[in-house]
Amino acid sequence: xxxxxxxxxxxxxxxxxxxxxxxxxxxxxxxxxxIYSFCDTQSCLPGKERExxxxxxxxxxxxxxxxxxxxxxxxxxxxxxxxIEPQLDTIWPSLTGPNPDFWAHEWSKHGTCSITGxxxxxxxxxxxxxxxxxxxxxxGGLAQFNILPSDNATYSAPSVVDALSKQFxxxxxxxxxxxxLVTVAFxxxxxxxxxxxPALNGWSCSGNVILPAT
Length: 214
Ligand code: 5GP
Description:
- The protein is of the alpha+beta class.
- It has a single domain (6-209), classed as Ribonuclease T2-like (Ribonuclease Rh, Chain A).
- The protein contains seven helices and nine strands.
- The chain has helices spanning 2-10, 35-41, 85-91, 99-109, 122-135, 138-144, 157-168; strands spanning 16-18, 27-34, 53-61, 67-69, 155-156, 173-177, 180-188, 194-195, 208-209.
- Strands 2, 3, 6, 7 and 8 form a five-stranded antiparallel beta sheet that branches. It has a two-stranded parallel sheet with strand order 1-4. Strands 5-9 form a two-stranded antiparallel sheet.
- A hairpin with a 5-residue loop joins strand 7 and strand 8 (194-195).
- The longest helix is centred in the middle third of the chain and has 14 residues, at 122-135.
- Residues 4-12 have low confidence and may be disordered.
- The site of guanosine-5'-monophosphate has 13 residues, from strand 3 and helix 4.
């Protein structure tokens, strides 16, 4: 009976589990959304739409596809990130609601579980995520391979992955909504070095895609 309980306890492939211990995961997913693709299917607030990849979040993940969420830890406090708030407003906006509500959600769900190694607290989590965004410029990397925002130009999904792999030296993951490229993710080790992403459920995109400009 104990063996069965242990097996159930560790069979978490593809699952979200709540209330784990901070730092108990395999790698980070750094996730960005392409605004015009996201806002094609969601009702975004007026004034939020522009041609840009912006941050969705930095998420701890496991090799089996499961991930911890809502770990024990510091509650969200926007005052802790007052020094980078203007940057966050530009590069980590909520497209559907108030920006601090989105940051609070990302912190509670993913940030609390991310605290390990170089990330000691809430400020480190947001600061590091901004730094990753600035270091690996996805829009610029795609442009190097002539993958540019346009409502007409189409690119094969593998060519998008290939361009980013060549530019950054590691394999990313992408997601599409219909034929719109909507999400790009890079994987990082727990000491925040880029690594190739493993194949993960829910991360697939095939055929031809666009990077819409409207
Ligand atoms: P996740 O739970 O995948 O980390 O974050 C998604 C949640 O964040 C959504 O349920 C949504 O309510 C909230 N959210 C607020 N603003 C945004 C946004 O701009 N993009 C996305 N993807 N989610 C947002």
